[in-house]
Specification:
Number of helices of chain B: 0
Order of helices and strands of chain A: EEEEEEEEEEE
Distance between the termini of chain B: 39 Å
Oligomer: heterodimer
Number of helices of chain A: 0
Strand content of chain B: over 45%
Helix content of chain B: under 10%
Strand content of chain A: over 45%
Distance between the termini of chain A: 34 Å
Shape of chain A: globular
Largest interface: A-B, 26 and 21 residues
Radius of gyration of chain A: 13 Å
Order of helices and strands of chain B: EEEEEEEEEEE
Structural class of chain A: mainly beta
Chain lengths: 114, 110
């Protein structure tokens, strides 16, 4: 059973389009995250949600918006896609928010904007 | 943004060799230090969460130590195998988030 799943795995789209990436976790965790793997392969936090409440929001463009219909899902919606948005996006979850809780990552979604 | 540094950036070892690498983090306001293993084309997987100064954790041939006073952690791999080839990330929590280091990319040569 997949603990953290993301769909789609690959997404190719044109500049200016709006797209969503879905994430689901079946671990019963309270907190979910979105990370972007940048061009240098670094993992950078974008958002996290704890019990459907946004608890951090890093300095990402407001074209990116997280949406959490319930505790098990955290979707990432991107408006007006730009070339620079091309990256691998990872969803993750942890049992609680807090320093001692390890994070479980999804398989990643490779977004290519042409 | 917290400064988490890892060294070396990359490492090649022969199968059977033991190896280690370093994670440096802010020593003030320490809560925990995470280690993750990230294989190519896969997603990061948690290895250890360390919380106590002097802590040592072990999982198979992989172990880690922690020095919170001087702000570093070592990851050791004993008798490296080709399947150990991966990027090893450490992460330092702050403000309900994890700040990841840049990783050490390990290649084990058969």
């Amino acid at each position: 059973d997949t603990a953290v799943s993301q769909t789609p795995k690959y997404l190719v789209t044109q500049m200016g389009n709006d797209k969503s990436i879905k994430c689901e976790q079946n671990l019963g965790h309270d907190t979910m995250y979105w990370y972007k793997q940048d061009s240098k392969k670094f993992l950078k936090i974008m958002f996290s949600y704890n019990n459907k409440e946004l608890i951090i929001n890093e300095t990402v463009p407001n074209r990116f918006s997280p949406k959490s219909p319930d505790k098990a899902h955290l979707n990432l919606h991107i408006n007006s896609l730009e070339l620079g948005d091309s990256a691998v996006y990872f969803c993750a979850s942890s049992q609680r928010s807090g320093e001692i809780y390890e994070q479980y990552f999804g398989p990643g979604t490779r977004l290519t904007v042409t | 943004i917290l400064n988490v540094e890892q060294s070396p950036q990359s490492l090649h070892v022969q199968e059977g060799d033991s190896t280690n690498f370093t994670c440096s983090f802010p020593s003030s306001n320490f809560y925990a230090l995470h280690w993750y293993r990230w294989e190519t084309a896969k997603s990061p997987e948690a290895l250890f969460v360390m919380t106590l100064n002097g802590d040592e954790k072990k999982k198979g041939r992989i172990s880690a130590t922690l020095n919170t006073k001087e702000g570093y952690s070592y990851l050791y791999i004993k008798g490296s195998q080709p399947e150990d080839s991966a990027t090893y990330l450490c992460a330092f929590p702050g403000a309900n988030n994890l700040f990841f280091g840049t990783g050490t990319r390990l290649t084990v040569i058969p």
